[in-house]
Amino acid sequence: MDPVTHLASGVIGAQAFRRNFPKARLFMPFCILCAWIPDVDILFFNADPEWSLLHHRGLSTSIAGGAVMAVILAILYRFVARKVPLAKSFLLALFLIYVHIWLDYITSYGTQILAPFSNERFSLDALFIIDPIYTITLLLFMVVAFIRKNKESVIGKWALAFVFIYPLASLGTGSLLENMMSKQYANQGIQFEEFDFIPDAFTPIYWKVVSRQKDTYTLTLVNTFVPGKEYPSISGHRANPGLLEELGTQTSMFATWKWFARYPIIKTRDTGNGTEMIFDDLRFSSVHPVMTSIFTERKPPFRLVGTVDDQGRLKSWQFNHSLRKTLEEAVQ
Fold it and tell me: Which of 108, 155, 253, 319 suits 10 as a labelling partner, its CA being 20 to 30 A distant?
């Protein structure tokens, strides 16, 4: 989830629990820090794009990592607010850190919540990585709580409830649509090896539909309010896992990308100086009108391109880093 939503959750947490910490100094900054701290991994990003894929939303956004950070923050906060019991600070820090992890988990990017014991990426597929409805509503709760000081705690707690209820309601909407469409395809005799609904911009109104028949992935869009409306589609040949593994023995980035990608597709072309292979993950593609206007003439995020010679030896490769970077470039 975007940084604004994470920071807003810290402010809301402070508003909800301020009465429970009447003697706490710098309480608001402490809550904001707790809500942000799982993103501390971005401070260690370097020029190696593989590092980002492997470790962003890794240990710092895991259940175990969050608990360790909560202990450290509670101990440090003890030097600032000596009258606040250590256990009380720890529980608050743990809650706000886990709210951050929840906000990441509800998107389709994937979060290694079991790290360091497992590097499997988990995602609830409930909201898009940037959800204006969600974020603006949380900001409105926050502003109202600032204005209505006498109701600050109650409003803050309602806001925290919204943090959990809205994504679950969105997920339920998507599940109903997915079941409905699955039955329609089954009645038409259409079978898929994979069939998923994942968030797109302005979920829960719009959802990406990703399906696979044999070795072809197809992505299209569905509108919750007009489920029968047809949208453009994107299709691509499924990338061979064995090919990515082979390239990964030459450069580990390809093995890492194979682990990261969810719906990998490949396009190839002869450059006259070798074969260029373009790998995309349909998870980060879209036919949504807003998203297509943003990404016009821009490379899709998380695109990996490699060039091999006639013997299949890797000559060069390049990687388009992230969705967030691409969105920032589009705004500029």
Answer: 108
